[in-house]
Design goal:
Oligomer: single chain
Helix content: 40-55%
Number of helices: 10
Largest sheet: 6 strands, parallel
Low-confidence stretches: none
CATH architecture of the largest domain: 3-Layer(aba) Sandwich
Length: 211
Amino acid sequence: MELLIFDFDGTLGDSRRLIVTTMQETLAALGLPVAGEAACAATIGLPLEGCFFQLLNDEALAAQCADLYRYELFPKNNVPGAVPPFPGVVATLHELHRRGLELAVASSRATPSLMQLLGDMDVLPLFSSVVSTLDVAQPKPAPDMVLKILADTAAKPSDTMMVGDATYDMLMGRAAGCATCGVTYGNGTREELARVADSLIDRFPDLLRLL
């Protein structure tokens, strides 16, 4: 492999508690039924409107929830340290970069938040391309984000691996013609990932043995 593309939430950053809590606060603030942790976590990886649509099946309510989440509640909850890297992520990214692999990020998180969190982890300079859902026409599981990164880096799909914690990540990578690796410690289940991923790892540093 020459290029590794990473999802952020549930793969590099442990944001589950922050996202789930903020989603539940959003629903409660609007007087809507508050979904449980598992139902909220299952939507992580989709664009924000898509997360709430999956819970509510109502486009107008989903858009209202997304605005409240994005502009009022998430900024309040996203205090320093709220999204720590998973164990071994920072050291492993530095080692992959040292070995000469090109690194990129494809995330459904909005660009300002994504750049801030990567900067907080002190890994932003390691990435040749950082693409968010705001940079493409179609969100995951469409291949648009991966295709943009391939264009940015001039990498070939056959030399590229998509690494993520959700089936959306695996389907996106496959649709772009790339290899896929599912991480089992994130928001997706091992069973779900095993059906669509080429390989699985239980710890982020296991990437070093897989490549």
